[in-house]
């Protein structure tokens, strides 16, 4: 009887340990209650102990299986609620690096193509600019930029003066250039002595072209007679044809050197023009001589003379003095000074009708290192000096450095 009781106690202990692993459900509590009742029956001893132990052991096995099934079912439910495992992760690093490398390669090729196109366009533009600068228009543009940088003025194309040939009223006054900069316009002439000197900053080549009495034959070149001087000169008829024979300035070869030679006047009015400068880029004086053998022819030549003078002022971007061009057309003599530039028109004391227009510009070399504005200085004591002859020496009468300019005189 003791051995079955000991076996039953061992079995009961194992059942109790298994019951502890089962969740605390209603059936588990009932099992514990039944086990406690069985244990009490064993201790009291009786005939029904064996039967009850067998019944309890069978139920314990069934409950154990049932608990295991419940645990397994709960595990499956929890696994069902969990997220399904994702697919196997693959390493995409090489593919991404290849795509990035392709993008960089495409960007580099695009930048290289754009750079080559820009270089080609730059070379083409440089070639076109070089070809343009080698033309006459390019030379004019460079000259205009050079003058504009030096004076702050705006230079435009020349505006031709109207041709007033034919008509008893004389030459009409040419219109001023519309692109004249305000800084270059002459201010109102005061009654007192002028202290502002205006320099001729235009290319001498353009000046020679403006006053050319022929059809484009007047060229600015180094003087063959005066070393270091530059000049341009030509003689032409009123229609622009060049005079090739000797003019009255050259004289004639005569057997008797002591004889007085009287030049023969031309049958058609002629204009002799000469401009000179101390340097290649500066102009110092201009002389236009009218030669005619009759009064009516002289007036025709005066119309042409007035037109050339108007072109000269257009190229200089200056406003001519009031009434000056009209006086030239009507052969009225005058002697004026405008902002340091002297203008004199007079008739020669010689046979026929011969007139000279002499323009003496301020020497630009004196004002390169100083301002064009200067204070009027006291004149030195008067010294007897013979009067200059502007007819024979165009440079005579130019204002000396440090000497105040004479006031303007009215004709």
Automatic annotation (TrEMBL):
Chain intervals for the UniProt region annotation (Disordered): 74-96, 370-411
Protein origin, superkingdom: Bacteria
One Pfam short name: DUF6030
Name this protein carries in UniProt: Uncharacterized protein
């Amino acid at each position: 009887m003791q051995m079955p009781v000991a076996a039953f106690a061992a079995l009961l202990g194992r059942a109790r340990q298994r019951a502890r692993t089962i969740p605390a459900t209603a059936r588990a509590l009932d099992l514990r209650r039944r086990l406690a009742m069985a244990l009490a029956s064993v201790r009291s001893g009786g005939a029904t102990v064996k039967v009850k132990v067998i019944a309890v052991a069978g139920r314990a096995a069934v409950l154990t299986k049932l608990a295991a099934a419940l645990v397994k079912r709960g595990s499956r439910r929890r696994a069902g609620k969990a997220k399904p495992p994702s697919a196997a992760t693959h390493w995409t690093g090489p593919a991404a690096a290849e795509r990035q490398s392709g993008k960089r390669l495409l960007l580099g090729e695009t930048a290289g193509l754009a750079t080559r196109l820009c270089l080609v366009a730059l070379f083409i533009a440089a070639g076109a600019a070089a070809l343009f600068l080698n033309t006459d228009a390019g030379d004019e543009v460079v000259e205009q930029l050079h003058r504009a940088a030096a004076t702050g003025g705006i230079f435009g194309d020349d505006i031709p003066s109207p041709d007033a040939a034919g008509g008893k009223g004389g030459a009409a006054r040419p219109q001023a250039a519309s692109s004249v900069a305000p800084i270059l316009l002459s201010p109102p002439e005061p009654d007192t002595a002028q202290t502002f000197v205006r320099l001729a900053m235009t290319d001498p080549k353009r000046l020679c072209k403006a006053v050319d009495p022929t059809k484009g034959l007047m060229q600015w070149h180094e003087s063959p007679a005066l070393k270091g001087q530059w000049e341009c000169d030509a003689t032409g008829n009123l229609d622009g044809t060049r005079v090739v024979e000797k003019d009255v300035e050259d004289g004639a070869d005569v057997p008797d050197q002591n004889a007085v030679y009287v030049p023969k006047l031309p049958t058609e009015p002629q204009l002799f023009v000469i401009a000179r400068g101390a340097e290649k880029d500066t102009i110092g004086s201009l002389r236009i001589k009218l030669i005619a053998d009759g009064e009516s022819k002289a007036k025709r030549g005066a119309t042409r003379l007035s037109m050339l003078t108007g072109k000269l002022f257009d190229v200089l971007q200056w406003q001519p003095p009031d009434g000056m061009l009209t006086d030239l057309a009507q052969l009225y003599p005058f002697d004026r000074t405008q902002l340091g530039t002297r203008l004199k028109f007079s008739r020669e004391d010689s046979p026929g009708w011969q007139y000279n227009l002499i323009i003496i510009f301020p020497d630009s070399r004196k004002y390169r290192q100083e301002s064009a504005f200067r204070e009027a200085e006291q004149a030195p004591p008067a010294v007897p000096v013979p009067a200059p002859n502007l007819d024979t020496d165009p440079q005579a009468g130019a204002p000396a450095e440090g000497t105040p300019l004479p006031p303007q005189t009215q004709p």
